[in-house]
Amino acid sequence: MSNPYDPFGARQTFSPGPGRTGQLVSLPQLERSGLGAVSRMPVCLRVILESLLRNCDGKRVHEADVRRLTAWQPRGARTAEVPFTVARILLQDFTGVPVLVDLAAMRSAVARLGRDAALIEPLVPVDLVVDHSVQVDFWTRADAMWLNMSKEMDRNRERYQFLKWGAQAFHGFNVVPPGIGICHQVNLELLAKVVVDREGLYFPDTLVGTDSHTTMVNGLGVVGWGVGGIEAEAGMLGQPIYMLEPDVIGVNLTGSLSLGATATDAVLHITETLRRFKVVGKLVEFFGAGAESLTVPDRATIANMAPEYGATMGYFPPDEQTCRYLQATGRPTEVVDAVRAYYSAQEMFGIPAAGQVDYTAVLDIDLNKVVSSVAGPRRPQDRIELPRMRDRFREQLGAAATDGGYGMNGSVADRRVRVQAGLDGRRAIPVTLTGGGNQDPETVPATPAPLTSEKNTNPETEIEMMQNRPTPDSVVEVPRGEFPEAVVELGHGAVVIAAITSCTNTSNPGVMLAAGLLAKKAVERGLSVPPAVKASLAPGSRVVTHYLDRTGLQPYLDRLGFNTVGYGCTTCIGNSGPLDPNIEDAIREHSLIVAAVLSGNRNFEARIHQSVRANYLMSPPLVVAFALAGRVDIDLNSEPLGRGRGGKDVYLRDLWPTADEIAGLVSEATDPGAYRKLYGDFRGQNPLWDAIPVGTGTRYEWDPTSTYIQEPHYFDRFSLDPEPCREILKARALAIFGDSVTTDHISPAGAITANSPAGLYLQEHGVQVHEFNTYGSRRGNHRVMMRGTFANTRIRNQMLPGVEGGVTIHHPGGERMSIYEASIRYQADRIPLLVFSGEEYGTGSSRDWAAKGTKLLGVQAVIARSFERIHRSNLVQMGVLPCQFADGEGVHTLELDGTETFDLVDLTCDVEPRQQATLVVRRASGETAMARVTLLVDTPIEAAYYRHGGILPYMLRQLVRQAEPAPAVSPPS
Asked: pLDDT at position 971, please?
């Protein structure tokens, strides 16, 4: 029967399992009512349609919204916006801290208006996983994890205290403490429900997360993607996630992975293919027999890297593989039954076959064609087949910087230097350091020492180890000189970082077991890793440690230096920690192009380590292989990794595990009891976290002396009425960039250098250089972050040709200075600022500070040839206009050099989606040029955000007005 909250009569009863009843809003009922061919829609779009149908209340979601989406045409016009209400929000600590800062600032602003601060409250469940703050300060030693975690707790104590305040101040705000795992793997293994039961009403588990790789959970059949923190805040406060009615690209996977190819190789192949197909901003849904045959860990590996191929999502509909994974990871039987029953009732259970669903476009990918590959040295989509690695590196080494190379040639390209390295933070016991990949057989024992794991294989005792780990007072940092020194030889292509890290691959037992098996065979043949290689293993959850221990493989990884350094996003986010200082000095003094090899998903410039310019993504077993070789200028198909016992050459083919060997161990990784134990009650599992005091109260007490947490300026002089929009006149260019400027370029996450504006600010406030921590850890302090905007050491401002770093020219005087200093001068003179760029501006992480910092620097518009999806949205949400040049036009056609002034005209107060505007260029010579640009404000709600100066003031005005009592009505006389 119809009711005000069920205008389509779609609410029905169904059985979510034996002897149980529940309710759902039926999508098949919509089709039976004649509203459209719902059963032909992509499954991911049907999940979004269900959200509209269930939340249709005539206020946030209207009947017309439902009708429009049911009439979706695969190749129709994309002008209508979809108000998508998600079931939950996922945060990690780098992005979660500024989200919490904004919420606390909104409460302070509400209090200043004389309203109840508790008006600001999350209306959907929020999970924050603390996973981005552990750094690899200690490695290749048995106690590395405990030492790194203790250091993490010490350097992040203030941030963690703030998070614990937030957990008590806001309802439904749950914090998963450090040392548990990476947010996406924890999401996959614990948080994701696939189907939510809320008071007997069942509906799909959906989310947005403040990390681009939220898409990993798409492999489990959950619709969700990454957004900026400011958009997540709106979702937390009950605002729908607005999006244009999307295109959905169907990817028909056929065949199966051949012998020797891994899920990592598959995703690198898919990333390259989909980037070329141009799926930026689109939904991707995988279907066909090849997709059906993939396990959930393989699907999650592919879904994780949707940001790398540019898609909003990389979705695999739920099926029996989903149910098997839920069972294997310890979910209750009734949860698994509900998933199968719910999606069956909605006629959405199972991977679609070819021709079963209508897509905007279909792309066929044959998994049989996937081969062993790596990607790099700067972008995840730049795939290199393994046999081509040596030649490709040498080509790039000699190529000019303008062609993506390093400009080394002749004798310079062959330069090798010898370095005396102290190897601080490495092995806790004496080891042979004279050989590595090309080890002298005389130094290798005839029989390797027997390897046994000292760790327990019972999850309960693993928890006890977490509880009994060293406290800060008991941790002793070994001084320099207590470890053996070694003379290491470095040259171009030398591997100095080898990291098995990142949720992309550590969530996949197949590739992790392959790495362990390869390590075992390498040790048995007498190989070791050269001492210049900083090796590390950062599992995405404690489950990985559990099954590597149970299979007996962890000791072999330890022997090669891949000791567990922590449970979190380490090298992939830039928390790779220091190299030996002598090695860093040699790299800098001799301009060496050294390499990092990692099993991550990001390898943008200066992200992994500021001294390492060539960074390659690859599967975990290949990370081990390149670590053994000690260099990337090698053809692993034809050259030996090194010499083993008896001086015999050992090749990759000698070590590569077979499918049967991996399959024989996978059962150890699918132990439901281990998941239940390790993901039980987190209380008491981390004494260092538990020891941090918890603040109380609904309002945060801001500390003006803090260098980590500061109240931002977004609500200074806040008024309930927004200021009118104005044209941008007499603007200057703050910077002019080329193509592929990433959010890492705009707002770095890694180390803060001493002579940068942020570093100088910290020193002025009494922070020693060794206490700087990272940009990511200081995102709660806008004073640090605005100084860090455009401060990446590899960013190139075309106003200073040939110069790297965050510098610019201040006009009209022509003085060279930091971008931050120039912006302060321009703002003091009330001069509006513009940023110009080429294609793919804002590629990479969903980093809201890339937009926040841009706003605080006084930039009013960014004008580029194209934008990445999340960053475009974030700019609008901060009240910065993203503008796109017309096809064929750009900085190059306008011949901009930064001496010009600019007017952006034809703007009105009622900014409309995709409105046209005119950029007037006034050159120093007096000449004038003009270009047409499109305002990339996609939807009416985005236009409203811009008019209000951003989404935060918009939301605050909405919430305050909704809470105001209705005006009294006088009785009739």
From this structure: 54
